[in-house]
Each structure stands twice: as C-alpha cells, then as structure tokens.
Specification:
Largest sheet: 4 strands, mixed
Radius of gyration: 27 Å
CATH superfamily of the largest domain: Glycoside hydrolase 38, N terminal domain
Strand content: 15-25%
Number of strands: 14
Strand order of the largest sheet: 4-7-8-9
Structural class: alpha/beta
Number of helices: 11
C-alpha cells in the first residue's frame, strides 16, 4: 500500500531589509519575491480558477513574513522592478546590435515575466502574506511556521530561548494569517530528543532532563513537524489528521530520533561505514590578521597552533574517528616553487602522528581558498589567486 503525498514548501530569508541592497541586502529578497513567491501565487490562482485546489503546505518563516509586510520592502521592490526593466531594455538593444536573435528573445521573455509578476503584485495590493492567508481561508493551502529567527533549536543552551522562538513564531503567524499555525518547519529540520543534560557553566550545573523538541512544540499548540530525511510528518498530539494527505506518525521522545538514526544506518550500509569526525581549524587561525603573508605567518603557539596530543585523545574518547586538520599554504611553503619548510612540515607531521596514536584517521585540509599571500617591498600584502598569471595552477603541485 502506498502513502498519500504532501507537497511541503519551505520559504525563509534572514533579515535583509534596511541592510543595503547587494549582494546580501534587499536585492536578495526582491529576487526571491519576483522569482519564487509571486510565481507561487500566480500558479495557485490559476489552479483554483481551473477548479483545482493546490493543497500545498507552505512555510512562511516569521522573519520573512515580517519583511514581506514591511512598507520599506514595498519601496525596495519598486526600485528593483525599475532596475530590471531598464536592464532588459538596455540589454535587448545591445543584443539587437551585436548578438544572435535568440538573446533578443531571451530579453523579451524576462521583460514579459517581470511585467506579469509586477501586475500580479499590483492586483493583490502588494500584500503577499495576506494573499497566502486568503488561499488558506479557502482551504487551498496550509501555512505553517518556523522558529522566529530561524534559530537552530537543538543547540540553544536554554529551553527558555526555544520557548521564546516558538512563542514569537506563533504570535507573528496569528497576526499576519489570522489563526495560529498547526505545524512547523524546524530550522534545518534539526531535532533533539529528550535527554539528560549538564549545564557547562552557571549556578544550575546539576544534571537534569531537558524535554525533546516535540514536547516544546506541543506546549505552543504546534501539532506537526516535518522530517525531510524520512519524508514524514510527525504529530506532537494524539490528533492524527487523516485528511492531511500526508504520511503521518506520532512524535515521541524517541520516534523522530529513531527515524533519523535509521537514515544514518542506511547511509552506513551503503557506504561501507560512516566515520564520525570533527574539524580542527586552529592550524588556519590568524590568517585574517593584518599583514599575514608567507613572510609573516604569525607566531606558532600564540596566533595559531595544531591540536595537542591530549586534545586528540579526548576527541577519540568521545567517539570521534576522523580528524579534519586544517593548515595553510604559506606556513608549509614560505616561498613559491621552493622546497617545503621543514619546521612547518615537522609541526604538521607531529599533529598527524598524535592523531594516529589516538586512533584517529586524518583528512588534511589545505585551507587557503585558492589564495597565496606575499609581502611586497613596501610592506603591503598582495593576494595571489590560484589560476592567475602570478599563481598558475601548477604552483600548487609542489604542496
């Protein structure tokens, strides 16, 4: 017997309004609006007009919803629209003069697309959240929420912080969509079962039980969470809505964790074994300091270091089997196309040997991001880019 299908869409952007325009300012939100949110509304309206109810489940995160409802966003979207209109016209004229006709037609396509989306935006009065709410009132979509600021819930040190994320999410959802959300898309689909916990610091250092995520969700009336790995919806209450059109299971302190553990086991059986590991980046520390270069790589033991034998043994006792060990190009080869530095190599070899002695396998990570920095005669630092004339790809072969 097969399972019913649920199309669950997750939409989220961090706060970008009033944080500039490009690359990670309002242009990010404007582009998503023209190429994602408005097209979704267009398709939904076409389906409803044809007598087909989409029955989508869509998450509009609180921080995204607040931005879509912001007057400042409306001004930024109008500015963005004018820019893309002008770009289409200017590019069409250029391609008409120099390019093949296919590129001219491509400009026509995008100009028509942007104008159609802008007309839809005008028809709905610029109210994207309100239009989704109208579709929900008609029974065509189910809008769920996310944590207020997309906080990674399992790693928040205080359950009070999790409650604040969830309470704010529910209140924001009710304000914009007229009713509380029934479900939630957990940020990064991150789940934590009930477990015994010891605070790392502070007055409450005794061991205590922390509730699982599903218990915290239920406290705020959130009835369902999504497990993207299993393609399953878990309910936090005893109310299983068979009409939801989804694969549904009860969320208990162990059911979600067990399902996710099954995913790990499945990957282990396919890959012939999965290694649990940790990335150790201290060998790349200090590269962001002013003046860092091959001639001035920072003092070992002060600015940067490799993990000690004791640190590595501690990692191994905690169940780790793999160490990703970062190092930088400049610290092992102070001069390009010259022999590697013996002191730098000895330090790296010692760290690798200590990891092997602790029972760890090692993955060396050359963390230079395709760059090599050298000091100029005037004391400035020049950053050479791998693949350029100054730093051809063959230069890396020496390392």
């Amino acid at each position: 017997m097969g399972y019913p299908f649920a199309l669950v869409l997750h939409t989220h952007l961090p706060m970008v309004v009033n944080h500039g325009r490009w690359p990670h300012g309002s242009d990010w939100l404007n582009e998503a609006t023209f190429e994602c949110y408005l097209p979704l509304l267009e398709i939904a309206h076409h389906l409803v007009a044809d007598g087909i109810s989409p029955k989508w489940t869509i998450n509009l995160s609180p921080v995204l919803t607040e931005q879509l409802a912001s007057p400042e966003f409306q001004k930024e979207l109008a500015f963005y629209h004018e820019n893309v209109r002008r770009a289409c016209a200017e590019t069409r004229a250029e391609f008409a003069r120099t390019g093949p006709p296919e590129l001219v037609r491509l400009c026509d396509f995008w100009e028509e697309f942007y104008e159609r989306m802008w007309e839809l935006h005008r028809r709905i009065g610029g109210d994207i959240p309100g239009t989704f709410a109208e579709l929900q009132r008609g029974g065509h979509v189910e809008i769920i929420t996310c944590a207020a600021t997309h906080g990674y819930l399992p790693l928040l040190s205080s359950d009070q912080s999790i409650h604040l994320q969830l309470r704010t999410a529910v209140e924001t959802h009710k304000r914009h969509f007229g009713r509380p959300p029934r479900g939630i898309w957990l940020p990064e689909c991150a789940y934590r079962p009930r477990y015994e916990w010891t605070a790392p610091a502070g007055p409450d250092r005794g061991r205590r039980m922390r509730p699982g995520i599903e218990e915290l969700l239920a406290a705020h009336g959130l009835e369902a969470l999504i497990d993207s790995q299993q393609g399953r919806i878990y309910v936090t209450t005893d109310k299983v809505d068979e009409a939801a059109g989804a694969r549904v299971a009860p969320a208990t302190p162990s059911s979600v964790a067990a399902a996710q553990a099954a995913v790990v086991e499945r990957h282990r059986s396919r890959a012939g074994g999965v290694l649990r590991g940790v990335a150790e980046a201290s060998g790349s520390f200090g590269t962001d300091q002013p003046g860092y270069s091959a001639q001035s790589p920072g003092t070992y033991g002060e600015v940067w270091t490799y993990p000690s034998a004791a640190d590595l043994r501690r990692l191994a006792t905690r169940g780790h089997q793999l160490l990703r060990l970062a190092f930088t190009w400049e610290r092992v080869q102070p001069r390009l196309r010259s022999p590697l530095d013996e002191v730098g190599l000895d330090r790296l070899r010692a760290a690798v040997s200590a990891a092997h002695a602790a029972g760890l396998q090692v993955l060396l990570d050359l963390r230079s991001y395709g760059r090599y920095r050298v000091a100029a005669d005037d004391g400035s630092v020049e950053e050479l880019v791998l693949g350029s004339r100054q730093l051809p790809a063959g230069a890396l072969s020496d390392v």
